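Milestone M4 deliverable, item 7.
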Amino acid sequence: MIEEKYASGAAVYGDDFNLEQIKAWYHQEAEAYANLGSKEFDKYTYEYHPLNNLHGYKYLPDRKFERVLGLGAAWGHEFYPVIDKISDLHIIEPSDNLRSETIQHLKPVYTKPTVEGTINYPDNYFDLTTCFGVIHHIPNVTLVLKELYRVTKPGGYLLLREPVISMGDWTKPRKGLTRNERGIPLAIFRSVIKELNAEVVNEGMCFCMESFLQRGWQRISNKPLHTFKSYMVFDKWLSKLFAWNIHYHATKKLERIAPQSVYYVLRKR
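Output delivered:
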């Protein structure tokens, strides 16, 4: 059973772990996502371009990004919509299985994350930093968010997308999820962003009741709903409509009528 301070969203599980606890978590998660079925390149399809374009990339200025960092960006597919604007691409990726020799015309520089969560790049180094669906796999959330912001240049952009619900009881095995992943309470995100004094270009809620809607949709198509641009536009407005109903650890059906994730576009002041 989840402790009350975590179930309520007042604190995020793992954020106060000591180094030994962080090390154990790191080794459990390093290949966990790849082992769920994403490590075969020929069979893997990246499904989030409509989401990234709608909530993220459209808010970026129309200019070149000299140096770009993707935390947990794996094969690098997330950069395809803006690849022509990138000169130098760096990816921090724990898995040895999720790496590309080239990403279109770019040869990415891959490094492994540190166990502690620090990022081995100088202050104010990257013009654009992305982190999509990664932070919820990491224990010390606050430190990593601060590190991402630290390595982003003033005037540069940080794009984040993470679940803001518990994703179920992480003290028990959950089908299709790694051992430790859990969502980050929205209040925690807002608190850290305020502390960083980041400019919030966009805070977009997304994935409202998608699991429920997908069950009906799969009778018509085997393509996930979020792969359709028109659906993501619908989801954007549905998520706005029910954002008031977000409960971090929902225990009632009505509490699940809410967006599941947040998408941030931040600009470093």
